[in-house]
Design goal:
By secondary structure, the protein is an alpha+beta fold. It is built from 8 helices and 11 strands. Keywords: 4Fe-4S, Iron, Iron-sulfur, Metal-binding.
């Protein structure tokens, strides 16, 4: 069975939010309908965004890394949001694996948002229905659009090609090769949701961080004597563990507690909290 999905390369995402704005523009004027915004430039902005980008730092000063993390529905192969829907509004398409919401059936009970461990559901206050990323299903099959442009709006807009789109069940597809060759991973696989979307890990450039405190520059050692007590710079693997732990915490912070994922912690979060 075909399973369409996004693969996001964290190594080249620059946090420009082009994916966010292009997603908003395409979907608010397409079959998904108007995506509400309330006080978008005020102190308490509220609106519907199918795609969001969060930015934070990992590592220990002075060896830190900035990570830009795009977040949207992961189109799980075992989506917990589908079986909890009392009206059948949330469903997974058999032909391509895309998880969608039928707004005509949705009653806005928010059960799906409680069931989703990734906090990927968006409630539209204006229409009183749940919404989410559709992988631009109304675009990718539109024969009036040139073949090269039949991809999600966020993929077309990304200036660094950090977003790939394709069938993760096809071993020869671009996305499958990227996952295989770059060590792509799904978020919180222990939950059993089998997310279709994957992330490609960051790769530290050579010389980005000294192997230990003694490798710091003379200026740094002189200007900041206390730097000698700084712990050795973390390895690339350690930074990746910390980044994944923060991803899990970010998702948890934006999702309501539910029996689906309550009490679960990733191994990365456990390691992070132990520091």
């Amino acid at each position: 069975m075909t399973q369409l999905a996004l693969v996001i390369d964290l190594n080249v995402c620059v946090g420009c939010h082009a994916c966010v704005t292009s997603c908003k523009q395409w979907n608010t004027s397409g079959t998904a309908g108007h995506l509400s915004d309330h006080e978008p430039y005020g102190e308490n902005p509220l609106g519907v965004f199918f795609n969001r980008v969060q930015t934070y730092e990992v590592g220990q000063f002075p060896q830190t890394q900035t990570v830009h993390f795009p977040k949207s529905c992961l189109h799980c192969e075992e989506p917990p949001c589908v079986p909890v829907c009392p009206t059948g509004a949330s469903y997974k398409r058999q032909e391509d694996g895309i998880v969608l919401v039928d707004s005509d059936k949705c009653i806005g009970c928010k059960y799906c948002s409680w069931a989703c461990p990734y906090g990927a559901r968006e409630y539209d206050e204006d229409r009183g229905v749940m919404t989410k990323c559709t992988l631009c299903v109304d675009r990718i099959y539109d024969e009036s659009i040139p073949q090269a442009q039949r991809r999600p709006a966020c993929v077309n807009a990304c200036p660094t090609n950090a977003r790939l789109f394709g069938d993760v069940h096809d071993p020869e597809s671009e996305v499958s090769r990227a996952i295989r060759e770059r060590g792509g991973y799904a978020l919180m696989p222990e939950l059993g949701t089998r997310p279709a979307n994957h992330y490609l890990p960051r790769q530290l450039p050579q010389g980005a961080a000294p192997a230990n405190a003694e490798a710091a520059s003379p200026h740094q050692t002189t200007a900041r004597p206390q730097a000698a007590a700084v712990r050795p710079a973390p390895s690339e693997a350690a930074l990746e563990v910390e980044a994944r732990g923060l991803f899990a915490k970010l998702f948890g912070a934006f999702s309501k507690p539910s029996q689906t994922h309550a009490g679960h912690k990733t191994a990365e979060v456990t390691q992070l909290e132990a520091r």
